[in-house]
Design goal:
Number of strands: 26
Shape: elongated
Radius of gyration: 33 Å
Distance between the termini: 43 Å
CATH topology of the domain at 393-424 and 535-647: Rossmann fold
Helix content: 40-55%
CATH class of the domain at 393-424 and 535-647: Alpha Beta
Length: 710
């Protein structure tokens, strides 16, 4: 089924996941599907709907109090005062207003002076929190700004009415709480400012990957038969252009080397620390760095088609996808504000009507309840941790396609490995050819193998082609076809039926066990022995999974003795040999019934098994990222340790989410009753609230630097 086209809007003004939830609900109510909103990057994605125009969607978002930013334009929203500017303006007026409690300078105690100092701060807060709060109410997901708006307005309104009603009376000071309204607004602006700066750090990997993109390129041009170098904008590169990349330069786009050779640093793409030697004919990736040598390359992909652009897009999309654990936070955050307003009203009623305290004390306790509560902390608990976790994984050459994959991997009970190309490197070579027919020589056998394997997509075939290309000539064959799990078939010029494949081609078991058999008219003419190396860190990785109480398995189509030997070498007790694709699927399905099952494969022949598992983990070269269907892609193919690193990051991300949620719930469960009981004044309450969500974000950012290696 063809996927719906995805649209992207850049939205300004979202401050927390409640904002994102409000936009999501508004657009879903409009009838849009697959809505993903990332409040940190401001990106709103949704499936294209022919019945709903972009203008209508933008109007809906603007009605919630947010701005729309177009490429190359500055929206009206961005021309408004920033949070930083609002904070400093508020601080400027709040300091003298706050000082009146500590100094006896007469002008500061004048009610009119206090009103004039508070008024600019209140006006900023009234517009900022009022607009955001009203938008959240219209979206059906009231946010924290509703509580701040009500609390600050109540303090200001009570002070203003007290000043008017008791003007000129000595006890007028007992009714003035302008410093409370001003301090609440200023402290919340401070909390928002710190939060915004902190949230930016959770998307650092996107910024780092974007920084790899090249702005200029050296194009090789021919003028009057002479070769010249012209500097052009990278965005002007076209497919087919020849580009010169010198020592120390970044490769401007994806392509293939035409001339020269170089050592290239691909660490930011694949996570591999060692540079890679590239020669003519090898593919290179835009954004990687030439460490030694210089090359001329032909551009094959440009713009959004490049691997780097696709990785950036994948990470952005993944960061906006929610794990199931976030549903709890979203549900509570969605009903939190009405509950807090109810508790605040109840607090006032109990203190004023039941206990019988002064109206002033009752209203302050009610305001304290409003401003100490923090629904943002619950909303930020999961997405900030997911963003940092996915960012950290991306920096290590691990692409995780969503928070759901992180959560499932962290809870995995079984992990299944394919043998060839996963546990082993998959770089096969012909070790020995055993001839069974005098008409055939080793060279002829190699020639037929080259001709057949040229049409195969199997990783073994690709490895053999590397060995044979340029060494032997091809044998003309007709009607070449590939049959899954069997091998390659064709017909020579004399009408003989030629087949190349595993022992499954044989009608009877043979005494000699070879990796491949060459068969002519159902008679074995040669046996081919292949050798393959075990991938680096495989034994260590398997041991780590076993120690983590995750059962490990090998599912392979290879013969019993080979799979058994590999399992013993790796320390895996559970293995299945001679597995057809449908048998692999049945085994994974059975494991899925017992718990989350992870399938690790090469992403090509294992595609059905990867799709059947709870999550699929694929070892792929960077050039395969766009077509890979696995939920997790390991770009560092040299070592299986990347699979363990992906699990480790998933584990620690999930732990961070649980820590964040515990703090968010515990803070509100403890803080709201304390405020309701009158132990905190509104200014202290506002300070507590301002930093509660910063603690959640800080704990998430800690994941970026935390040592999680075993």
């Amino acid at each position: 089924m063809e996927k719906s086209e995805k649209n992207l809007l850049l939205v300004e003004g979202m401050t927390c996941s409640n904002c994102a939830l409000g936009v999501t609900k508004r657009l879903e109510k409009r009838g849009l599907k697959d809505v993903d909103v990332n409040f940190a990057t401001g990106e709103v994605r949704f499936s294209n709907s022919p019945d709903i125009t972009i203008d209508v969607i933008e109007s809906d978002i603007k009605s919630l109090g947010y701005g729309i930013k177009s490429d190359g334009q500055t929206s009206s929203h961005s021309r408004q005062l920033s949070i930083e500017q609002k904070f400093y303006i508020s601080l400027l007026f709040s300091i003298p207003l706050f000082l009146h409690m500590f100094v006896s300078w007469a002008p500061l105690h004048n009610p009119m002076v206090q009103l004039l100092l508070c008024l600019p701060v209140f006006a900023l807060g009234f517009y900022h929190f009022g607009k955001s709060g009203w938008g959240s109410l219209k979206s059906g997901v009231p946010n924290m700004d509703v509580l701040i708006f009500i609390g600050a307005t109540a303090a200001f309104g009570y002070s203003l009415s007290g000043m008017i009603l008791h003007w000129g009376e000595p006890e007028v000071a007992n009714f003035l709480f302008f410093e409370t309204a001003s301090t609440i607004i200023t402290l919340v602006f401070l909390g928002n400012l710190i939060e915004h700066r902190s949230v930016k750090q959770t998307t650092s990997s996107i910024q780092e990957l974007t920084a790899l993109q090249v702005e200029k390129a050296n194009k090789v041009c021919l003028k009057n038969g002479e070769e010249t170098i012209e500097e052009i904008e990278a965005k002007d590169i076209k497919v087919g252009d020849t580009l010169l990349v010198r020592n120390g330069d970044k490769i401007p786009t994806d392509g293939k080397i035409k001339e020269g050779s170089a050592k290239i640093d691909e660490a930011m793409i694949s996570g591999e620390a060692e540079s890679v030697k590239k020669n003519p004919g090898d593919e290179v990736i835009g954004g990687t760095i030439v460490l030694d040598g210089s090359i001329k390359m032909q551009a094959l992909k440009v713009g959004h088609q490049t691997v780097l652009s696709q990785i950036i897009e994948l990470v952005k999309t993944a960061q906006s996808q929610k794990p199931s654990i976030q549903k709890l936070g979203d549900k509570v955050a969605g009903i939190f504000v009405p509950i807090v307003v109810g508790i605040s009203v109840l607090t006032f009623v109990v203190w004023y009507f039941v206990i019988g305290v002064d109206f002033r004390i009752a209203i302050l306790n009610a305001i304290a309840v409003l401003v100490i509560s923090c629904p943002c902390a619950m909303g930020l608990a999961t997405p900030t941790a997911v963003m940092v976790g996915i960012s950290r994984a991306a920096r290590n050459g691990i692409l995780i396609k969503g928070g759901q994959s992180l959560e499932i991997f962290a809870k995995a009970k079984h992990i299944v490995f394919d043998k060839t190309g996963t546990i082993t490197t998959g770089d096969f070579s012909i070790n020995k050819i055993q001839l069974y027919d005098d008409r055939y020589s080793e060279e002829k056998v190699q020639s037929i193998i080259l001709s057949l394997e040229m049409y195969s997509a199997h990783p073994i075939a690709k490895s053999i082609l590397k060995q044979l290309k340029g060494k032997v000539k091809m044998t003309p064959l007709m009607g070449i076809r590939e049959e899954k799990a069997l091998g390659m078939f064709g017909q020579d010029s004399e009408g003989n039926q030629i087949a190349l494949g595993s022992y499954k081609l044989l009608k009877e078991e043979t005494v000699n066990s070879h990796s491949l058999y060459l068969i002519e008219n159902e008679i074995i003419v040669a046996g081919i022995d292949l050798e393959d190396e075990i991938r680096e860190h495989t034994v260590e990785t398997i041991a780590n999974f076993e120690e983590a109480k995750i059962s490990t398995y090998i599912l392979s189509g290879d013969k019993e003795e080979k799979v058994r030997a590999m399992a013993e070498k790796c320390g895996i007790e559970n293995y299945e040999s001679e597995q057809l694709p449908e048998q692999k699927l049945a085994k994974i399905d059975a494991l899925n019934q017992d718990g989350f099952t992870v399938m690790v494969g090469d992403g090509i022949n294992d595609a059905p098994a990867l799709a059947k598992a709870s999550i699929g983990v694929s070892l792929s070269s960077a050039t395969q990222v766009a077509i890979n269907s696995a939920e997790i892609v390991l770009l560092n193919k040299s070592s299986l340790k990347s699979a363990w690193d992906a699990y480790n990051i998933s584990q620690h991300t999930y732990l961070t989410i649980k820590q964040n949620l515990f703090w968010a719930f515990a803070y509100n469960v403890v803080a709201i009753p304390i405020a309701a009981m009158g132990f905190l004044n509104p200014m202290v309450a506002a300070l507590s609230m301002a930093f509660s969500d910063v603690i959640v974000i800080g704990n998430s950012i800690r994941l970026r630097y935390k040592n999680i290696d075993k």
